[in-house]
Design goal:
Strands 2, 4, 5, 6, 9, 10 and 11 form a 7-stranded mixed β-sheet that branches. A 4-stranded antiparallel β-sheet has the order 1-3-8-7, with no helix packed on it. It has 1 helix and 11 strands; from the N terminus they run E-E-E-E-E-E-E-E-E-H-E-E. It has 129 residues and is mainly beta.
């Protein structure tokens, strides 16, 4: 059974950095669409970034472009999200997700949570001003 486990969240001051990790087990990445989502209290879950499992293409939400970088280590079955220049509005629970069919990325729907069938438990990121 596929399992995704996030780590790396925490509390930082505005302008700080964090690197989130998502370790996968139960399958190996191949032709998947892998993504990071976040959900703040009272808000809908939103797509932050996604990457095709061969590393050929990545996507990012406009507000995080230039600050967040998604990457993948296939040898270690680990997905990363490096977050720099963090802002208070980045505060949220962050989830990694996997779309084994890869359609989320292929059809440009990477930011839609409905495209992803597997989810981690989440890791909290809190940015103070």
């Amino acid at each position: 059974q596929v399992q995704l486990v996030e780590s790396g969240g925490g509390s930082v001051q505005s302008g700080g950095s964090l690197r989130l990790s998502c370790a996968a087990s139960g399958y190996t990445y191949s032709s998947y669409c892998l993504g990071w989502f976040r959900q703040a209290p009272g808000k809908e879950r939103e797509g932050v970034a996604a990457i095709v499992s061969d590393g050929s293409t990545s996507y990012a939400e406009e507000s995080v472009k230039g600050r967040f970088t998604i990457s993948l280590d296939n040898a270690k079955n680990t997905l990363f999200l490096l977050m720099n220049s963090l802002k208070p509005e980045d505060t949220a629970m962050y989830y990694c997700a996997a779309d084994p069919e890869g359609l989320g990325c292929a059809l440009g729907r990477w930011s839609s949570a409905a495209e992803f069938g597997y989810w981690g438990q989440g890791t909290q990121v809190t940015v103070s001003s």
